[in-house]
Every structure is written in structure tokens, then in C-alpha cells.
Design goal:
- By secondary structure, the protein is mostly helical.
- The chain is 78% helix and 0% strand.
- The chain has helices at residues 2-11, 13-30, 38-61, 73-95, 102-112, 120-126, 131-156, 164-175, 180-192, 194-203, 207-228, 234-261, 265-273, 277-287, 294-318.
């Protein structure tokens, strides 16, 4: 019985994390005994999530061979697709600025312009892909986002009043500490402290994945809060949920199709569809609208649904 329970928990870690996040939201908003603790939890989350992501990526990066961290042809193709998607969303926002459907266009813009999530390499490794090429694309797409957001957002919101350089540096400051620093630390240990590096690799098995599950639980609770507190019309909100879901599935399909041509199907699929939703929610809340932030939020939920199925099928293939 315990063996079956452990197997279920491993196969469905992400859905369980999402369920726990939903339960936590209900508890801290509806239960009187939890309300006094809520302000402390909310103030602690901005410190908790970066720490979890840093540790999760460090454990994952320790397993990567530095020689594999080089650009691949599919990296350029995915960046061009991301550019086309972003420009299409910008055109929609500009030409429908006074429409009631503007929040949908802004939601898609926030999703399209977002770089690959830092956890993408962790998922890629979990389902049998190449985490090194996924890590490289995370850096490439993050640079793309840091350039594109200051370039196109003044066209959508002319009154944001932030210079290109200031916004470029602001985005890099939010992205690179959780991507580059753990990578540098992993490479430093590999070169100058090989025994410590070997110990970390031996102890890191699946731990980065379960750290990601904790992040998923926290993010799910925050996303539900964002949706519940939104003042947007329900038809707009449900349209965002459904259309973003279709976009996520389509991006997984396109990414895998392109990656298959270069022998890197899994990493490319994650690269195009696994978005840094924390960054895109911040962008939407800062420069667009609270309703637009729903798009990146539900994008995370859809990503986790697809990833849950991928992890389940990968586990069953390996057990045959």
C-alpha cells in the first residue's frame, strides 16, 4: 500500500502541488484562525520563492557538462517565433486600445514576450531531455525579453515614463540572479571544489524537482488570489483562461516539432512553452493592467497540467 502511495505521489507531484496551493489559498482567506498569520506569510513569499529557485537551479546545474552550454540552431528559430508572436500581440494592443478585449491582447503579450522559465531545465531533465540546451536557451530568451520589453511596451503604453536602459537593467536584475548566479556557483564548484561538486550531484537526485513542486504550490495560491481579486468582466477572464490554454498547448507542439529536426525535441518543447510567469506577471502588473496578469498566471497552470502528463508518461515509459 505504501509503495503504491509513493508511486502516485511521484507521478502526480505537480497536480498535488496545485491542489495544495488551492487549499492554502482557501485556508488563509476563509479560516479565522489563519488570518493573523496571513500578513507574515505574504511578506515572506517574495524572499522564499527566489531562494527556492536559486537552490533548485543550483542542484540542476551541477549535473550539466559545461561543454554542452552552447547555442543551437533551434534556439534562433524559437527566438524568431517569440519575436513574431510578440509583434502580433503588440499590433493587436495598439489597434484595439479602446476595446473591451484589450486585457486579452495584453495577457497574450505578457505571455509571448516572457522568456523560458528557469525551471524549464529541471523539467527537461525530469522527462529525459537535455538540460544543458534548455539552460542555454533560458539565457538566450531572457536576453531577448530584456531587449524586447523596453522596445515594444512604450508603443502599447506610451505613458510608462521609463527609459529603455532603465527598463532593460530592471528586467535583467529580476531574471539573471536566479539564472546566472547558481550557474556560476555550480561551475565554480566543478572547477575548484570537485569533491563538494560530486557530493552535491550525489545528493541532488530529484530534489530540484520537489523544490519546484513547492514553488508551484505557492504560485498556484497567488494565481488564484489574482483571479479572484480581478475586477475584469467574467467573459474576458474565461476567454483569457481558454485562449492561453490553447496557446500553451500549441507552443508545446510547435517547439517539439522544431526540436525533433535537431534531435532535441523535449528541450525545444519546453523552451517555447515553459514561460517565466513570475516575470511576466510582474511586467503585466507594472506596465499593463491587473486583468492582463491573469494570462501569465493561468499560463503557469496550463504548463503544469501539460508537464504533469509528460512526467507521468515518461515515468511509465521508463518502467516498461
Amino acid at each position: 500500500m505504501s509503495h503504491i502511495l509513493v508511486k502516485v505521489l511521484k507521478d502526480w507531484t505537480l497536480p498535488i502541488s496545485m491542489l495544495m496551493g488551492s487549499v492554502c489559498y482557501v485556508v488563509f482567506t476563509r479560516c479565522a484562525w489563519a488570518l493573523p498569520v496571513k500578513p507574515y506569510i505574504v511578506s515572506f513569499i517574495p524572499y522564499l520563492l527566489p531562494a527556492l529557485i536559486f537552490l533548485m537551479l543550483f542542484l540542476s546545474y551541477c549535473k550539466i557538462d559545461p561543454k554542452e552550454l552552447r547555442p543551437r540552431p533551434w534556439h534562433l528559430i524559437l527566438v524568431l517565433i517569440q519575436l513574431a508572436e510578440t509583434l502580433l500581440a503588440v499590433w493587436w494592443c495598439i489597434h484595439h486600445h479602446d476595446s473591451e478585449w484589450l486585457p486579452l491582447a495584453e495577457s497574450l503579450l505578457a505571455v509571448f514576450v516572457a522568456p523560458m522559465a528557469a525551471v524549464g531545465a529541471v523539467v527537461t531533465q525530469k522527462i529525459g531531455g537535455n538540460p544543458a540546451t534548455a539552460t542555454t536557451y533560458t539565457v538566450v530568451s531572457s536576453l531577448f525579453t530584456a531587449i524586447m520589453v523596453p522596445s515594444v511596451y512604450p508603443l502599447v503604453e506610451p505613458g510608462i515614463g521609463v527609459s529603455f536602459l532603465a527598463l532593460f537593467c530592471k528586467i535583467l536584475s529580476r531574471v539573471f540572479p536566479t539564472i546566472i548566479f547558481p550557474l556560476f556557483l555550480a561551475l565554480f564548484l566543478r572547477r575548484y571544489a570537485p569533491r563538494v561538486h560530486q557530493w552535491v550531484c550525489a545528493e541532488a537526485k530529484d530534489k530540484s524537482f520537489y523544490l519546484w513542486a513547492v514553488c508551484t504550490m505557492v504560485n498556484t495560491a497567488q494565481i488564484i488570489r489574482c483571479i479572484v481579486n480581478s475586477e475584469g468582466a467574467m467573459n474576458i477572464i474565461w476567454s483569457i483562461v481558454l485562449i492561453v490554454g490553447m496557446v500553451v498547448c500549441l507552443q508545446f507542439y510547435i517547439g517539439k516539432h522544431i526540436g525533433a529536426r535537431y534531435g532535441d525535441r523535449i528541450a525545444a518543447g519546453q523552451g517555447l512553452a515553459q514561460k517565466n510567469t513570475v516575470l511576466s506577471i510582474w511586467i503585466a502588473m507594472t506596465f499593463l493592467s491587473p486583468t492582463a496578469a491573469i494570462g501569465p498566471g493561468v499560463c503557469l497552470l496550463w504548463q503544469n497540467i501539460v508537464n504533469s502528463w509528460q512526467i507521468y508518461t515518461a515515468a511509465h515509459r521508463s518502467s516498461r
